[in-house]
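WARN no homologs supplied; continuing
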Amino acid sequence: MTSSTLRFFFNPMSRARMVRWMLEECGAEYEGVQLEFGTTMKSPDYLAINPMGKVPAITDGGTVITETGAILAYLADKYPHKQLAPAVGSAARGEYYRWLFFVGGPVEAATTAKSEGWLQDQTARQAVSASYGRFDDLVRTLEQAVAGKRYLCGDHFTAADLYMASYLRWSMMTGQLPQKEVFQAYAEPLCARPAALRANAIDALPGQAQGAALAKQG
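OK structure emitted
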């Protein structure tokens, strides 16, 4: 695969940082394309790739993948030798899908609703209608998912761990989730993985220096 095959559309102040970490875990070669909120993200060229005008997104040849969880799952399958997804048909694969979709669905929706103040006067009817139910239910489910675990699915790190650990750490930092020891015990060691640290270093660099740094690392 050449560096021009895979293109990664990102802004370092977005969920694209999770994808950057995944690309580093995969050892992928790619071209990074930084977009800015409200301007290049809404340009005709990018809207032709993602009509939502949001990042992250990747293109792999003629294939377009948007949505963070979908990108993580796609990359895990694209680089099977990295073992970032459990075997197809295994019980661990079921757990893997469960938590990928849980983070991308209820967790994403609930933390956004909380940060915007939409849950302050939530009614019983609204809790039934919302995918995340009541916020306390979501927090309890997350606690049960990670309590006493090094990894979510089997005995090794997967894309589901990357997604879960990233979201727990970010949401605790921003106050969208409570600071809980069980969350920290699970997330902090994973967020200190070498690939995560490399990704953070790349996204800490200004402007287009990311691509040059990545090329040197490759």
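Residues 207-218 have pLDDT under 50 and may be disordered.
OK
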